[in-house]
Amino acid sequence: RAADAGGIEVAVAAMQVHPQVAGVQGNGCLAMVNVCLGTDAAALAHKQRAADAGGIEAIVAAMQAHPQVVRVQQGGCGVLGLVCSGTDAAGIARKQRAADAGGIEVAVAAMQVHPQVAGVQGNGCLAMVNVCLGTDAAALAHKQRAADAGGIEAIVAAMQAHPQVVRVQQGGCGVLGLVCSGTDAAGIARKQRAADAGG
Prior knowledge:
Order of helices and strands: HHHHHHHHHHHH
Strand content: under 5%
Oligomer: single chain
Number of helices: 12
């Protein structure tokens, strides 16, 4: 109902108008998480509307502007993970849009800055899994960007710091499996990097 009333667009607009107000950014993340949650047709439409409204770029900007604010980092990673889900053409385009905006790097940075916050770690895993999912050239580039940003080490550290948190363990294994795929020189180097990090 909130989406039908224009809730997605007004939340994104509020984030764009008030980029330095952490409360607006945190609440904007929360609104988008709640509206975009789900896998049914309505949720998929909401994810696309969030992207069309500039939500991906607004989330990345919020995370860049407020790196110490847990609520923004946890919610931002959650939104990136949700909006970047999907393997259809629209989902692939949203993944690319997130990568182009710096979504991979802000998700890794969030995990590095907040290593003891399980919610940030779990949502960071979700963001990286969904942005890196795929076998096409773009997905391979996303995997390399995640590795270059320190994502492999951040995932291993998250799994070591939160051994009892199923979401972190499941998501971490998923990210490691995706990022370490590939038989080319870059893929082999990512596998070695994961092994060296304790993955």
